[in-house]
Specification:
The chain is of the alpha/beta class. It contains 16 helices and twelve strands. Strands 2-1-3-4-5-6 form a six-stranded parallel β-sheet. It starts with a strand and ends in a 5-residue tail after the last helix.
């Protein structure tokens, strides 16, 4: 099978790394793969049309991009006469404008199954009939195993945190008072529970206010749940920043927008923004690596799997998916937002006692290598492509 992967811009080289790893896995599975970097094209549409003249692929795979592409009214699948599988790695309603322009023939992959429920609830199952849960695979190849506990304990970075420092901002603060009240009520509900799908929270508030959820004219109000998702994520992440700083634990941080927050930390090494391959190198030198799950409370982020394949221990907020595929305390360490102090006490113990973390790393790495690599995820992509209508 000939597979064409097109990749675009990406913060920290994230989705570009995913595209390359997907290609490597597809080649190991015996397929011919072409990866085209669209960022070097002077004209995006013309470049894609050139590719359509040059290749006759059996499958198109993109990450976050090109669902809305049209060439003389032809979709990407129509132009290449091949199934198009599009993986959304972010909260899908952050891309509502793209989503509503994505053809129904496009197979969509989501990192959280509750986002599938949200899309079907707002737009109807017939609008995007081919949507599949595709949890993030690990974003690296497995590191060599540490020889023993002493080698693990000698890793030079006790605690690593990688990611952008976001401060909470209120996107609805200029809205009419009635609208502000609706959003504030939804946000209050969201922050009082460990996690619930943002679309479900906002839908309940809208319904209580008399909004008819079945009326397509109200779809825009419902997809505004993206604001709840964003504010919950940034509020909790910033709370974690402040709580972690108070522990005094030694932490190495890489990512953007941290400089005006470093004063909070008594023992910090700041490395600035780093591309994903460099972050993987740092994980391979770390004992424990932090993860905030991007508010994917039903699904996954790539980081826990990447951490494990790097030979480190993920310390992450919970998700329904992690609870299904891991066993807390056996092959991963999780905390709960509703009991953050207990979680940070546990984090300190894991750093102070590498002999407790090391067996978890060994078990978790074996599980990630077996079940959570790109090689293991490929059947999901191929099944989604097979379910696409014939071009």
């Amino acid at each position: 099978m000939l597979i064409l992967i097109m990749k675009g811009q990406s913060q920290y080289e994230g989705t570009r790394t995913f595209a390359d790893l997907a290609a490597d896995a597809m080649r190991r599975a015996g397929h011919e793969v072409v990866v085209d970097d669209l960022t070097v094209a002077a004209n995006l549409r013309e470049r894609i049309e050139e590719l359509a003249l040059q290749y006759r692929p059996d499958l198109l795979f993109t990450i976050n991009i090109l669902g809305e592409f049209r060439s003389e009214e032809r979709t990407l699948a129509g132009l290449f006469r091949a199934p198009h599988v599009l993986w959304h790695t972010d909260y899908v309603f952050n891309h509502t404008e793209r989503l509503v322009r994505t053809a129904a023939e496009t197979a969509l992959l989501m990192v959280d199954p509750t986002q599938i429920e949200g899309v079907h609830s707002v737009f109807g199952a017939a609008r995007h009939p081919n949507i599949t849960f595709f949890p993030h695979p690990a974003a690296c190849e497995p590191a060599p195993d540490d020889a023993d506990l002493d080698a693990y304990a000698a890793r030079p970075i006790p605690l690593l945190w990688s990611g952008t420092c976001h401060r909470p901002e209120i996107p609805w603060k200029q809205s009419p008072p009635k609208v502000q009240k609706l959003f504030e009520t939804a946000l209050d509900h969201a922050l009082k529970v460990e996690w619930a799908p943002p679309h479900e929270i906002l839908d309940r508030v809208l319904a209580d206010a008399g909004v008819d959820l079945s009326d397509p004219a109200n779809a825009g109000s419902r997809t505004a749940c993206r604001h709840i998702d964003t504010v919950v994520r940034t509020t909790r992440r910033f709370a974690f920043v402040k709580a972690l700083a108070k522990t005094g634990l030694p932490v190495t941080i890489c990512g953007d927008n941290w400089k005006d927050q470093l004063y909070r930390f008594k023992n910090v090494t700041y490395l600035g923004p780093q591309p994903m391959p460099k972050v993987v190198e740092l994980m391979r030198q770390s004992r424990v690596v932090l993860n905030n799950n991007g508010n994917f409370g039903g699904g996954s982020h790539e980081r826990p799997f990447t951490i494990l394949l790097s030979g480190a221990l993920p310390f992450t907020d919970t998700s329904r998916y992690y609870e299904q595929v891991f066993e807390d305390g056996e092959d991963i360490a999780m905390f709960r937002w509703m009991d953050l102090p207990t979680g940070l006490d546990r984090l300190r113990r894991l750093i102070d006692h590498p002999e407790e973390a090391y067996p978890m790393v060994q078990k978790g790495k074996a599980k990630a290598l077996r079940d959570h690599t790109w090689d293991a995820r490929l059947p999901i992509i191929f099944a989604a492509a097979e379910a696409c209508p014939a071009p």
